[in-house]
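USER:
I wish I could look at a protein chain and see how it folds. I am handing you a single protein, as its sequence and its fold in token form. As I understand it, each token names a local backbone shape. I hope you can help me see how the letters and the tokens relate. The protein I mean follows directly.
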Amino acid sequence: MKLIILDRDGVVNEESDAFIKSPEEWIPLPGSLEAIARLSHAGYRVVVATNQSGLARGLFDLHTLNLIHRKMHRMAQEMGGLIDAVFFCPDVDEANPFRKPNPGMFLEIGRRLKCALMGVPVVGDSARDIRAARAANAWPLLVRTGKGAKTLEQDLGICANVEVFDDLAAVADFLIARSG
């Protein structure tokens, strides 16, 4: 099985320092849904893993988060793609093993899909995505979208030996050409 794990905000959709609190605020990044479609057609199972502390902060409820994800699923399907699952951590507590940069969410994905994570690409836009991927023995990839450009400037140490791409479409091009 080919698996790819994507962060949500800043990778699939526009990032917001004020949190994505409604389906209307969830806006896909240019080319991201088409990239998911191409990955799906190339045999990848696409899974989203996202910290969603806005739940614990009371900025939105679980019903609203489900509506946001329903919109994401529908829009990906309209482009011909499939998001197999969405995993999220609602907690603000950095000690929660499932909150990135901790690897718990990724390890749970591997457990549920019965898949070793060694070599599984994890696409993120922040140092916490890279740290979580490394801690889970996955393959961290960084995009410049979202917080990615800022991460490259501020976290050079954590970005060492991490392949960097302009966006999710560039990641899809690279992975599909590599496996083709």
Remarks:
- The mean pLDDT is 96.
- The two ends are 15 Å apart (CA to CA).
- Strands lie at 2-6, 44-51, 83-89, 121-124, 139-143, 163-165.
